[in-house]
Design a protein that fits this description.
About 20% of the residues lie in helices and about 25% in strands. The chain has about 230 residues and is an alpha/beta fold. The strands form 2 sheets. It has an 8-stranded mixed beta sheet with strand order 7-8-9-10-6-2-1-11, with helices on both faces. Helix 2 crosses helix 3 (about 200-215).
Length: about 230
């Protein structure tokens, strides 16, 4: 991959309390339009949601096994996924028009961002041919999915993004077939024996984002944070 393209600083937002999914979606829609218009900076927002299931553009009704939480249909790629407390979500709103207009490279960089973040905690995350997300070896054999990706692009501005399982309630994933891959379990950093605080995970995500995307990040002002 070519070196990252240098751009203006990225606005870095972090929320410590769960953000309702419709609120986050409305913010992304607004910010994408503002980035496109040149009235707001590129933005990454790290947050958690109350328990929800989201259905991407390839979602199949039969993959919703037990709708125990609210279900939202969204325009990102992929099938069903779960978001909830203990899972750090990263919404990535970048202008690919200024970053080379290469969607495949952008997805590769999201994966590299997650792999580098996990490596800071001694976890080896890997890609798998034909499967979306980041995968790890499980202590008792086999492999599990520890992070998911789902993106949308509007006029070369990206939104939605990644989710990293830090310490979510893994039983909540059983209401869906995650990303259509029912034969593989979902795991987390905690399930692998790694205890990490939100602050530590956010700091690692910030370091690795800056390294992979070649962008300076600037923490949002308190009035602009949730």
């Amino acid at each position: 991959m070519a070196p990252p393209h240098k751009t203006d600083p990225v606005c870095w937002r972090r929320s410590r309390v769960p953000v309702p999914y419709p609120e986050a979606l409305a913010f992304m829609e607004r910010r994408v339009a503002e980035i496109r218009a040149g009235t707001a900076p590129e933005t990454v927002w790290l947050l958690e949601h109350p328990p929800v299931y989201t259905a991407g553009t390839s979602a199949r009704p039969e993959d919703l096994l037990e709708p125990r939480f609210p279900v939202y249909e969204v325009g990102r790629g992929g099938r069903f996924t779960y978001h909830g407390p203990g899972q750090r979500v990263g919404y990535v709103m970048l202008d690919l028009g200024r970053r080379g207009r290469d969607l495949r490279r952008f997805v590769w960089m999201l994966e590299e961002w997650l792999i580098g973040t996990l490596a800071e905690f001694g976890i080896r995350g890997e890609r798998r041919e034909g499967r979306i997300g980041i995968w790890v070896a499980l202590p008792r054999g086999g492999e599990g999915k520890i992070a998911a990706l789902g993106v949308r692009v509007r006029r070369w501005v990206t939104y939605h993004g990644i989710s990293l399982n830090v310490d979510p309630e893994l039983s909540h994933f059983s209401g869906i077939v995650p990303c259509g891959l029912g034969q593989f379990p979902v795991t987390s950093m905690a399930a692998l024996g790694v205890a990490a605080t939100v602050e530590a995970v956010d700091a690692a995500l910030a370091r690795r984002f800056a390294a992979v995307f070649g962008s300076e990040i600037r923490e949002a002002a308190p009035a602009d944070r949730s």
